[in-house]
Design goal:
Layout lengths: L1 E7 L20 H15 L8 E8 L7 H14 L7 E6 L6 H8 L5 E7 L3 H6 L6 H13 L4 E8 L6 H14 L3 E6 L7 H8 L7 H17 L3 E4 L2 E3 L6 H7 L3 E5 L4 E4 L2 E5 L3 H7 L6 E5 L2 H12 L8 H8 L1 H16 L4 E3 L2 E3 L8 H5 L6
Parallel strand pairs: 1-2, 1-9, 2-3, 3-4, 4-5, 5-6
Antiparallel strand pairs: 6-8, 7-8, 10-11, 11-12, 13-14
Helix pairs in contact: 1-2, 6-8, 12-13
């Protein structure tokens, strides 16, 4: 099984925290879609013998494209790849794009899951992050989506926002829970150099919250959403029964995927490749091998990634699977490293599997790196 990802880079406004490849040249959207069709045609052999299980439109802001253009890409994919077993089709959306007309048109496509970038229900925090919607618009968008028949809806929240403490976060969590989406993603704000926040940090006018604040806010997110019936199944992801994100889960379990669009990544048969992060160059090169950079993942690379992604999930890792994939020596080493961590409560055992307790996911990086082969 495999995933198919389409990267739509366009944004009306640049968020202060985002370092994904993006473009504000909305007038070139038709040219981009045409180029994506060319790339899809040429790239289909990358997954020629795989069944596509999930389709995901990310960005950028995919909801800036008319729903009919999204359906055209899905139709083209179905003509080139085996999409008969697709279980989930997701589009990311900004709340202010989800008016009645857009949702009505989207409901006529095969899209069956919405990922709505709310980030906060505090208008002050939204202004700080340079979001283009208000808290009221976000709430209206979620209600409209549900009324339009979209049962599988996820919303994104950000915590650890400097200057906005626990009362603001609690308000956002309570509002999110009250809207009752099937899935909630909650990300700690990360300040990346090539962002507005990063440039402010370089000038000394902005900085991350301290470690104790991070821990308190993380605990508030975990406790609030867990108490509301959401399973904390991955570091940043919470879902009610039946609503886990299947596309994202495939990344964590090492499934293969094909990425279409500028800067989109693909992985299959030990090869990872990525498209050029330039709209101009993408439009020129789409459909040719010159579009891509690539790397061959060694067995050590694949082992490290298996450990990293597996230990980010509530299910954790089965050491026997490590043995089957990477040999008995690595399995024995994994168990040796796990012993002291299990004794310290940083790992727990679920029958044969070893996992980081969800309430300690904030410390996952320091646990995971103990297993890495350098």
């Amino acid at each position: 099984m495999a995933g198919l990802y389409f990267h739509i880079p366009f944004c009306k406004r640049l968020c202060a925290y985002c370092d994904f490849f993006h473009s504000v040249e909305l007038g070139r959207s038709d040219a981009l879609v045409e180029a994506m069709h060319r790339e899809l045609e040429a790239a289909a052999p990358f997954l020629s013998d795989r069944h596509v299980r999930t389709i995901y439109f990310g960005g950028g802001t995919p909801s800036l494209l008319p729903p009919a253009r999204l359906q055209e890409l899905m139709d083209h994919a179905a003509a080139l790849l085996d999409c008969s077993a697709v279980e989930e089709r997701t589009v990311e959306a900004n709340p202010d794009d989800l008016d009645g007309a857009y949702l009505e048109a989207l409901a006529r496509t095969e899209i069956d899951r919405l990922s709505v970038g709310v980030q906060s229900f505090d208008d002050g925090a939204l202004r700080l992050m340079n979001r283009r919607h208000t808290a009221a618009q976000a709430e209206q968008a979620l209600r409209r989506a549900q009324e339009a028949g979209f049962r599988n809806v996820t919303l994104d929240l950000i915590f650890g926002i400097p200057g906005f403490g626990e009362p603001s976060l609690r308000q956002s969590l309570e509002k999110a829970v009250g809207l009752s989406p099937g899935h909630i993603s909650a990300y700690h704000l990360t300040i990346k150099p090539a962002t507005a926040f990063g440039r402010r940090a370089a000038r000394g006018t902005f900085g991350p919250v301290d470690e104790r604040t991070s821990e308190r806010e993380y605990a508030l997110v975990h406790e609030t959403l867990s108490a509301a019936g959401y399973c904390h199944y991955e570091v940043s992801n919470y879902a009610r029964e039946g609503f886990r994100a299947r596309h994202n889960s495939a990344y964590w379990t090492g499934d293969e995927y094909l990425g279409i669009g500028p800067s989109a990544h693909s992985f299959a048969r030990g090869i990872r490749r990525w498209g050029v992060a330039s709209l101009e160059e993408y439009l020129r090169l789409a459909g040719t091998d010159a579009l891509y950079g690539s790397e061959w993942l060694s067995e050590r690379d694949r082992y490290n990634e298996c450990v990293m992604t597996g230990l980010r999930t509530a299910e954790g890792i089965d050491p026997d699977r490590i043995g089957a994939l990477f040999g008995e020596r690595r399995r024995e080493r994994f168990l040796r490293e796990a012993g002291p961590l299990e004794a310290a409560g940083l790992l727990v055992r679920h029958e044969v599997r070893l996992a980081i307790p969800a309430e300690r996911f904030l410390l996952s990086d320091s646990v995971i790196e103990r297993f890495f082969e350098v």
